[in-house]
Amino acid sequence: MKRPVFLTIILLLITHFLSAQQIPPGKVITTYIKAKTLENKAGENPVRRISVYLPPDYENSSKRYPVIYFLHGFFWSDSLLVNNDKINRIFDRAIHLKKIKPVIVVMPDESTVFKGSFYANSKSSGNWSDFTSIELVNFIDSRYRTIPNKDSRGIAGHSMGGNGALRNAILHPETFSSVYALSPGVLDARYFALTETEAYKNTGRIKEVKDLSKPENTGATILYAIARAYNGNSRKPPFFADLPFSFDGENVKVDTEVLKELKDNSVSELPFTHYENLRKLKAIKFDWGKNDEFKHIPVTCRSFSQTLELLKIRHEAEEYIGTHGSEVSRENGRIENSLLPFFNINLKFEE
């Protein structure tokens, strides 16, 4: 390598490093709430941790800020968003590069004993949607300098969190004006169940809740979590849920009522049952990787977009080259270059 070229590369690396060092950092505050909406008999802790990102200028100003509620995925949590994904650095960088004006981001921990709540009201494990869209919002508005109205509130999330973002935006247009879902998972829970029939065989070996923590039971954990969210049964311990399939040897038994309940409680049904709510939302966007490892996601995202198009609901739906998470939280990834600019356009900021 010629010396001038080598020196140029070194200078570029130094410039990049110094530029990164000069990005003003925001602050992540950890707080807790004992949620009345999450009182339950199924063993879930109603005390919830919340990570709140405050923009760099928050402590040195008196102005109010819009809020983005960002929901984590299955097997994940608010602390992993910060400590593993370094999502706060994405917010810092996007604000510094003026991809979004300063904003508060709220990341609630809605992981469960079964690893995920799906942000839905459950008959057995708590009203997670009510917590997300009502109790949590009131809690945040009472403690931080937010702009406390729907025009300045958006909701987003990845995977299970994308599912929850769409669900809660559609159910609560009085709370949120805009929604962005990254690779939303299990939009159609009935379709997911029908494509995973064989996996339900593994649920038969789960006798106690503690068995769900074993690595070989990961698939069964997901199935039980979905059942607990959509088919909760407070009279059926220890799992407090109904499954759509059971097995007698190799013979599968189908519970058609449970399958119907899965369908009825899916996000994919909300455009039909909450059409007027959808029309009240200012902006809707969701995206997904073409090569997502979870094969149901591209299929159900395309189908959901077709449903919205059929109903003449304005929205953006984008398929890109990538997997379930490869493009989401990296530098210049989907959060930085698509999600945050989307909210910069669609949320109302203080003049």
Automatic annotation (TrEMBL):
Keyword annotations from UniProtKB, A to Z: Hydrolase, Signal
SUPFAM superfamilies reported in the protein's UniProt record: alpha/beta-Hydrolases (SSF53474)
Stored InterPro entries: AB_hydrolase_fold, Esterase-like, Mycobacterial_A85_antigen
GO molecular function: acyltransferase activity, transferring groups other than amino-acyl groups; hydrolase activity
Keyword Signal: yes
Keyword Transmembrane: no
Signal peptide residues on this chain, from the entry's feature table: 1-20
Pfam families linked to this entry: Esterase
Annotated protein name in UniProt: Alpha/beta hydrolase-fold protein
